[in-house]
Amino acid sequence: MALTGDADTSLKMMTLAIPQRSLAYFTELNPADNSKFIEARVYRKWTAMKIPSLIPTGFSCILLDKKGAAIQANADMQEKERFERDLQINCVYRIQGFGFEKTDNWGKTLDNDMTLCFGKHTQVDLVTDDDYPVHYFNFAAYNELGGRLEKKNPILTDYIGYVHNVEKTKEYGGATGNKIRLRNIGIRNLNNNVVVFTLWNEMADSFRDEEYAQMQQPVIIAVSSCYLKTYGGQIQLSATSATRYYFNPPIDETAQLLAAYNQNNPTIPPLQLQTERSADWEQERTRNRVALGTLLLIDPNTQQRVLFTQDVKILNVDTTQDWYYQKCDECGGKLRYGYVHGQCHPYRTQPNPQKSPQTDGLIKDINILLQEVANKDPQVTPPEILALQNTRHVLQFRFAKPAGKGPPTFVLQKVMDHRPAILTGPSEGPSSPHVTATETQATTEKTHHLTYRFGLRSYSFRIVVTDGTGNATITCFSPQTDGLIKDINILLEEVANKDPQVTPPQILALQNTRHVLQFRFAKPAGKGPPTFVLQKVMDHRPAILTGPSEGPSSPHVIATETQATTEISPPPATPTASQDTPANTTDATHPPSSSAVRKELFGQSPEQESEPETKKQKTD
């Protein structure tokens, strides 16, 4: 009995010698002290991924304590299944037996220097306590995004605003490479600045379209742990594996956004807009018929990517503005009438004839081709260009300036199928080319220069239109003026006075005529009512190419697909830190010939041309 009593006493002494862990809040944790336990709500959890292979590497979650602090915890793959089961979202647990590690700078979800480590000795016990915060955000303001991007801030970004638009899921790539799916959501703040938020793959598929469609407008969306990037000069938020989004979360920022909306929009009803192009001409001709009086009350920043149509009467032409503009073939800057760009060309010489299109020998001159085709819409690839498919050529080219991730692209420099003709024999004309080589060369230079200048001219006149509810100003650029007035180059050949400040009678004749126009909001340049930019003249159904196509694809189908993408979706954001982007993301949806041709033929898009005075185009 004595021995038993001694053993019990020894066991009690050992038990008393082990200190009990004490409760600590996150701000009280010390990475060198293992004597604490925590009580926390599981806020988010996800599977950590290795980038860019997207191989799962472990379990991660964010915990919230009673004081509103947040901390991330990680576990290895061996323990992932256990913690996925034991830690449920929004439940409160007592957790002990955890370690610490220094937070990795890549993909930081929180501004913390340490992260908790869970393992086989970690104990998790459910606690009944609802006195914990429901959400945790550290929102960035719109004007802070640029600074974060420049400093390459390692902390992932939280953002909040109104849902501006929700696009359908799009798929890129194919079986021969990588395949990705993405969905873009526009988020608008109180100043009507819109940021694109991109969901990838499973996140894009799981977006609840039906639930969102039934929500009362406006809908507030808060997104967390997004990778901040830029594409084409536009700031974008790219979802990561840690990203979650919440509709109308019960936080102060949501209340502020709703209050501001109700105060600033008491009389304007929400617009029911169709953002997808219609393949049916009559439906497209009447899509988004919104009265001008209503459009003039809307902040143009909120509908920058939406096309409207309206049957209008042209009241007058603004003769105070230049009716056309021309760009320098060297620097891309605007050429003012009567001024020369002496800094771009050698003294007493014409512009370098080598600046003429490098497509010579591959296809006919652009101006000749434009005279032949019935549909001059740059988004409709003519059969003559499609006929280049499956043909062989010897090409001289160079690397293009890289625009982002993906394989390098190239710029055509010269077509070298045939040796250039050498003038050796006597000419059948009145003079010998050999004798008058200098004169012939000068004539050739003049012809090439004239052709190239034609490709750089564009209308830029303004018209004031009305539909009976209000008067609006629309700026008209080439080639969107097709169907309204003849080609700019033909008109310039007809008028005697080519001063762009003298509006020709052919343009003034547009006054008091009626047209169905498709247009969009122009980017606001200052105070005053919003203005618009002409997108298409829709008076008559476009001519349908009834003859057989010279290439394997139908131009009409290509136009429909490409137009829908041009209006609705920005180029897919390259997920440099959150997803594995395939090398060629455009093959599945867009024929590369169409977009490449548009870029080579017409240079700038109408959106870029809306500010010809301030924007400069760099030529390759």
UniProtKB/TrEMBL annotation:
Gene3D superfamilies the record matches: Nucleic acid-binding proteins (2.40.50.140)
Pfam families: DUF223
SUPFAM superfamilies registered for this protein in UniProt: Nucleic acid-binding proteins
Annotated segments matching region Disordered: 424-446, 564-620
Bias (Polar residues) ranges: 575-596
InterPro entries documented for this protein: NA-bd_OB-fold, RFA1B/D_OB_1st
Residues of the Replication protein A 70 kDa DNA-binding subunit B/D first OB fold domain: 25-125
Full protein name: Replication protein A 70 kDa DNA-binding subunit B/D first OB fold domain-containing protein
